[in-house]
Hints:
This protein is an alpha+beta fold. The chain has one domain (about 15-115): CATH 3.90.1030.10. The protein has helices at about 15-30, 40-55, 60-70, 75-85, and strands spanning about 35, 95-105, 110-115.
Amino acid sequence: xxxxxxxxxxxxxxxxxxxxxxxxxxxxxxxxxxxxxxxxxxxxxxxxxxxxxxxxxxxxxxxxxxxxxxxxxxxxxxxxxxxxxxxxxxxxxxxxxxxxxxxxxxxxxxxxxxxxxx
Length: 118
């Protein structure tokens, strides 16, 4: 039973799952919108919003914590310099998930677009 279990495993080990989330969050930060499956978008949303919260803190310890989550310096720099400033007046809810009407052709997975709100 999965009572009170928030995360999905996506049939991967924890290292593979962490790598998947890192690559999706990196793409979201650099491209500002990504198209992925609905379940992946829901899972990645929490990681992306935690990074924005760290960026709004802005101190050295938050930057080091962000580099632990996402070891791409250019993406972390963009979070702290651009995205944190953009969401300065907002208390959460930095991302939006838009469900797409068409399903993926191979496995009929529900697709979605994950993007920043502003």
